Amino acid sequence: RLLETIDGERIVAPCALAEVDLLQLLFFGNRRQSLTEFVLSDLGVARYYPYPLDRQHRLFPHREAVEEYLACSELSDFWYELRDSEGASALPQLAAQMLNMEIRFTSSEGRWYRLCNGLARDLERLGELEIAARLYQRSGRHPARERRLRILERLEDWPAAIGLAGQVLAEPWCEEESDAAQKVLPRVQRKLGGKPAPRPRDNFPRMDLELRKEDGPVEVVAARQLEAQWGRVYYVENTLMNALFGLAFWEQIFAPLPGAFHNPFQSVPTDMYSPDFRLQRREALAARMAELRSRGVAPLLQDAYSRYASFQCRWVDWRRFDDTLLKAVTGAIPDAHLLAVWERMLFDPRENRRGFPDLI
Description:
The chain is mainly α.
């Protein structure tokens, strides 16, 4: 749209922004991606794996689902505005409004859960513990149960706390939640007169190095010194094990399950970092683990590398991973060790993609 100012200058202004935003939401299934994805793909900067898209399992099955998603988005935007404007006094009112809402469609759940968790955490800081606990109870994503458990502990509701801790430990959503429940449970048991079992302690071998001061990261300096006794040292941080995981389970990651992919520009499925990922693919993941055990890790990873190299996958950083490193790793690390690592990663892909050794 062309606008003309009083002094005769012409300005080009965008129009129909709300309609464009809505169309992008319908196409991408989120508010993060934009038309830039088309440009990057056409330029060859990003090459996405050609997974099939099933029109029968779109994110929004009908208009009501879109309207509910947009309503959640408006509430989320309003919450951010209150935080930026220091309008903390209005947060309990927003929480009361949310507690009167019912979410009907799965397309809104992720945004709704994040909003419940974020607003509840702000209310905790304000001392509004009971309404915060009610919001956490409406959420189906971490850290809702962990935070509610800590609130019950602060309120000294010991029976409810021990019940929730047992529920978390029986079916944890993620590593962090399980770890928190294991720490809280002994304290609650003592309050109820019980004697908690001692927690096992890890005991790892330790190596001490004295490094000369040199230019560059300390990891690189340590790698140079360790090469004298290890032969070859790679500085990989989290990229190596994540890349191996991505190659090992590529077919399962990009399996065309209902609701997993909404547009052709995704580097992982929508549920990659939620408990639903392993639950919806339980049989396929078990079959793949059995195949890796029976046929051997090295040939299967090499085959995956030759087929999928350069396709976008959030697990694989192709800039820091190549065929030479793949052969070195699979030749040095026993299959049983890699399989054990992958089993742990599959339990909680979000948390367990971090914390790997810098050097190998």
